[in-house]
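Case study 2.
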Amino acid sequence: MKRIMLACGTGIATSTAVNVKLTRILHERGYEGKFKITQFKIGEVVANSSNYDFCVATTQVPPGAQCPVIMGIPFLTGIGMEPVIDKIIAELEK
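Prediction:
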């Protein structure tokens, strides 16, 4: 099971919205039960990143993250989602 960090400024509002969308998309594409998403404040990413396979963030991640970071802004804007989803699926397939 892949462990996904989901990070936004406060770890609550924006990351919850992205979590709902990302979970739905991954379930529709056959990844149900193959991942676990945990939400974080952006300031917690570096300290916790070594325990996760990758991070989807809706704001700039401070230097030092020990896992790949994928920018998740398209989940909020609806623009350019497919390339981001492709990156997420590529990480799930590793």
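The helical segments are 13-28, 45-48, 74-77, 81-93.
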